Structures are given as C-alpha cells and as structure tokens.
Amino acid sequence: DEIPTVVGIFSAFGLVFSVSLFAWICCQRKSSKSNKTPPYKFVHVLKGVDIYPENLNSKKKFGADDKSEAKNKSAMPKNSLHLDLEKRDLNGNFPKTTTKMQSSPDLENSSPKHFVERKKDSVSPDSLKSITSLSSEDKQDKLGTLFFSLEYNFEKKAFVVNIKEARGLPAMDEQSMTSDPYIKMTILPEKKHKVKTRVLRKTLDPAFDETFTFYGIPYSQIQDLTLHFVVLSFDRFSRDDVIGEVLIPLAGIELSEGRLLMDREIIKRNVRKSSGRGELLVSLCYQSTTNTLTVVVLKARHLPKSDVSGLSDPYVKVNLYHAKKRISKKKTHVKKCTPNAVFNELFVFDIPCEGLDDISIEFLVLDSDRGSRNEVIGRLTLGSSAEGTGGEHWKEICEYPRRQIAKWHMLCDG
C-alpha cells in the first residue's frame, strides 16, 4: 500500500513542476518579443546613395510632425541629399529627378574621337522644346522627324547607317489613333542596296536602333550617293500606308572624322494623290468550287466633305449584276462624321452562271441623310468591261481563284 502512495505523490509533484516550467518559458518568450524593436524602418535602397545615417534609429527621423519637417527643409542646404519618404510609390521607389545633360544620350556609348556632332544636324534641347511646343495646326501638317547616324569604316571599306528612331509620326489607323511604322532605305542612284527595319506595333515614336552596313563602297564614291528613307505604316488588309520620305544627298558630308548624328523632317512623298470623290479599299475572292463571290468592303478615305455639316456619314451599297441586270444587293453600316471610314464588312454572293464573264459588281458610296435623299459620293465598278484599276482587279480575281485580293480604287462621280 505504501508504494502506490509514494508513486502518486511523485507524479503530482512532477506534473506541478512541468506546468510551472511551461508557464515560465511562455512568459520569457512574451517579454522578449515585447522588448525587441526593429533596428530601422525599411527604405528602398538607391544605387550609389547612402540613405542610412548613424542616427537612423531615432524616432524623430521618421515620426517628426509637419512643423519640424518644414523647419528641416528650410534649414537644409540646396546641394544636400534629402529623401522624402512620403513621396515614394507603392513599390517603395522614389520619383526620378530630371537633370540637365550636357551631351546627347547617344554620346554616352561612344568615344569622343569617333563621334562627331554637327550643330546644324544635332538634336539640341531647344529643338526638342520647339517640337513639343507646336500648336495643334502645326502638328497636323508635321509628319515627324527621323533620327539617324552615318559612319564610314575605312578598314573594312564599309558605309554604316544606323536608323535610330522617329518621333511625332501621324496616326494612320483612325480607330486606335496609332501606326505600325517601319522604314525602307535605298541608296540612290543605282538602287542596288535596299533594306528595311522591323515593324513596331502601335506607336508614334518608334525606336528602331538598327544598323545597316554596306560593304564595297569606296569612300570616293560616297559624295555621289543619296540616301532615300521611306516611312511606312504596316496594313494587314492591303498595301502599306506611306507616311512620308526623307532624301539625304551625301555631297558635302564629311565622314572622315567619325560618326555623324543627323535628324531630318519627314516630308510628304511625291505620289499620286486621290482627288475628287475619294478612294475605296475592297477585297474580292472567287470560289470556283462553290461558285460564290466573297466581297469585303474594308476602308474609304479622302471622302469629300458635305456642304451642311462639314463631314459626311458614309456607307457603301454593293450591287451584283448579271448581264447588266441587278440580281443582288447589300449595304454596310453607316459611319458617322468621318472622311476616312473603316467598314470591314463581308458579303457573299451566289453566282448564277459558270465563271465571271457576265458578272460585274458596283460599289456606291453614299452620304446618309435622314432629312432628305441620300447623296451618292462616288461610284466604283468592277468587271471584265471595266476600265483602269477596276478591270485590272477583276482580271486578277479571275486568274487567281480562291485568293483574296485587295486593292484601292479611285471613286468616280455618281
């Protein structure tokens, strides 16, 4: 009987001791956590800048009120470094400060011996200010500026052209108000060397930074050459839109001293412009197996302005003729107040005969007017008997069935 009693007493003492030890450990941990304070408040580290002074642990450094901050700012010298923690963004970064650079950014990656800037061709801060401070009317007339560099490598007998960037290009896409620019370059007068840059999507300030090296051109012949840059905007529906061109005669340009930075204004290309009634972009495809004709009305541009509102509300009516008899008709939706409409509407016509010999198709571009009869802006006819581009387009459709062929056409008077 004594042995169980002794075991019970020792068990009770052991349980009390374990509970007391556990409680003491918990109290120690709690007190250690309450006494532990962080050594400093987190601040985003700027490269090359020491932002941890010796007295950083002082609460006044971070918890000062507005009055003390105002006094510190007024007492601080202009050249000292001051980081305002309240101006940080969500990532803890400080806003970048703009500093005046004495040289162009392109000069940082090149040595002074091999890089020369002409005052008349270099990009100065004043010229950039003049570009950005243009009025809205001037911006409409401006086609942008092209920046490039020229260099001649005497060791390899190579002529090097670096197309850097273009700024302030006009928007060729009316919906997104952007362009998909790229540049074609040709060395005149022989036109043997033709190159082009990659297409940069949805930008009006493309940065190409592409270098083209032409070997086998003696330095004595450089003065007789002319560089021809053509700035275009890629269009997946039809031929690419021409924004403008730049011509650089190399006569009088010295490249013996090193690389030369240049910039030129982009001017309108000397091409045939649409006059009168405007232009219409259509795409056609003849399916000989199903005997159907697929017609896609894509775009219209340079439509004339109406007399009342100043802008037309165009839509396109499509008529299919068989032996001079209309057998089917379709029409697109109305585009409000625009001389450059984007339709992108597809129509499928069943052909009642074999082949397209007796088939013709008519496009009527009309101005929608609720108050009176819709006025015909322009007319386009495609068929075997059509003249000009209409006949050429129809011939291609017949020669290449199952192929979607798109072309711009001048509209005739309605």
TrEMBL record:
UniProt keyword terms in alphabetical order: Calcium, Cytoplasmic vesicle, Membrane, Metal-binding, Phosphoprotein, Repeat, Transmembrane, Transmembrane helix
Domain C2: 142-263, 276-409
UniProt key word Membrane: yes
Subcellular location: Cytoplasmic vesicle membrane; Endomembrane system
Residues annotated as transmembrane: 6-27
One of the record's GO cellular component terms: axon
SMART domains reported for this sequence: C2
GO biological process: calcium ion-regulated exocytosis of neurotransmitter; negative regulation of secretion by cell; vesicle fusion
MF terms (GO), sorted A to Z: calcium ion binding; calcium-dependent phospholipid binding; clathrin binding; phosphatidylserine binding; SNARE binding
Compositional bias of kind Polar residues: 94-112
Region (Disordered): 62-131
Entry membrane topology: Single-pass membrane protein
Biased composition regions of type Basic and acidic residues, renumbered to the chain: 62-72, 81-90, 114-123
Protein family (similarity comment): Belongs to the synaptotagmin family.
Name under which the protein is recorded: SYT4 protein
Species for this entry: Vireo altiloquus (Black-whiskered vireo)
Gene label: Syt4
